[in-house]
Design a protein that fits this description.
Elements (H helix, E strand, L loop, with lengths): L8 E2 L3 H6 L2 E8 L2 E8 L7 H15 L7 H6 L9 H16 L9 H6 L12 H8 L7 E4 L2 E4 L12 H15 L4 E6 L2 E5 L8 E6 L11 E7 L2 E7 L4 E4 L2 E4 L14 E8 L2 H14 L1 H10 L4 E7 L5 E5 L1 H4 L2 E4 L1
């Protein structure tokens, strides 16, 4: 499972928010936290509705909830009823899986568990064990047909955690837009969508962390980005990892090899109109590695990124697409 990495929100003071009728809501969600700031001319409090949406989302696509729809799909429950959240995640996952030539693949779940990055404890992995798990990894082995999940092998399991938080950001953003709220920012577990303007009537500002190994606290900002009507998700290998025999193993598992990824791309921030796309692609890029990610971007100029990678001397270097250069408010 991918733990989504914190993009620290650069928020104005609470007093200034009140003066401009900007409200704030925060709390726990999906094993992490959420923070929302919004302006509503009718001064409505949406906290109850937001919590209800997040609870319904968790009941749909959380592998950590044994009663969720995705958990029931993984258990091959023939009576499970799919909802709109699950169906959207499945269809989008198929799209990104195809787009990335399998670098992003939610059927990697058995391997994620085996390596100790899911709900289960780490297994003692040998090549034979990995090879056996790879037999039922591959998104071509599962289909959605007439509202039903069809598996070519019953051992195929799904994990949407690599992009579900990004999708939940989109769900809440859609909620605000339907309510006629045009100025807001939604952050869940570091995945962000910003719409309209902040209380200072400027674009929203978010920070992308330096990729320093740190399992608990936030890191200093590598760059500050001005964001408007855009989603951004960051994935990296510096916060969720384990050490085995003195070797660092990161939580991104390459679905083609069965092993944790090993390349010099440390952090991938992806900017798209939908945060779901940003989140899924960020995972795919970390699996691809820097060079293959660059080749992908040459074919998809609509996707904007900010990469941090290590050069041959181990020093941090940055690669960004041209449009992102115009969004930088502060660069370290």
């Amino acid at each position: 499972m991918k733990i989504l990495f914190t993009i620290a929100l650069i928020l104005i003071s609470t007093e200034f928010c009140k003066a401009q009728k900007y409200q704030q809501i925060s709390g726990p969600a999906q094993g992490t936290t959420f923070h929302i700031t919004y302006q509503d001319k009718r001064d409505r409090d949406f906290e109850k509705e937001i919590n209800q949406i997040l609870q319904a989302f968790d009941l749909s696509v959380s592998t950590y909830n044994p009663n969720s729809i995705i958990s029931q799909v993984n258990k091959n429950n023939p009576n499970v009823k799919l909802d709109a959240y699950f169906v959207t995640c499945f269809r989008k996952a198929k799209e990104i899986w195809s787009l990335t030539n399998g670098a992003f693949d939610p059927t990697v779940y058995p391997l994620v568990n085996a390596w100790g990055f899911g709900p289960e404890k780490k297994s003692n992995l040998e090549q034979k064990k990995i090879d056996s798990l790879l037999q039922f990894v591959g998104f071509e082995k599962i289909e959605l047909v007439n509202g039903k999940i069809i598996k070519k092998d019953p051992r195929v399991q799904l994990d949407f955690n690599a992009f579900a938080q990004g999708y939940s950001v989109d769900v809440l953003s859609s909620f605000f837009l339907k309510k006629g709220v045009n100025n807001f920012i939604v952050e869940i577990g570091g995945e962000v969508y910003a719409h309209g303007l902040a209380a200072n009537q400027e674009k929203w500002r978010v920070a992308i962390e330096q990729p320093i190994e740190n399992k608990k606290d936030k890191n200093e900002a590598q760059v500050i980005i001005e964001l408007m009507n855009k989603g951004v998700a960051t994935s990296g290998n510096y916060r969720r990892f384990i050490e085995v025999d003195g070797k660092k193993l990161v939580h991104h598992i390459d679905p083609r090899t069965g092993y944790p990824t090993s390349n010099n791309l440390l952090s991938a921030s992806v900017f798209c109109d939908q945060t779901l796309n940003s989140d899924a692609l960020a995972t795919g890029f970390l699996v691809m590695g820097l060079d293959n990610a660059k080749l992908f971007l040459e074919k998809h100029p609509e996707i904007q990124v900010f990469f941090i990678y290590a050069d041959e001397q181990g020093k941090y270097q940055v690669f960004m697409t041209k449009e992102v250069m115009n969004w930088i408010a502060q660069h370290q």
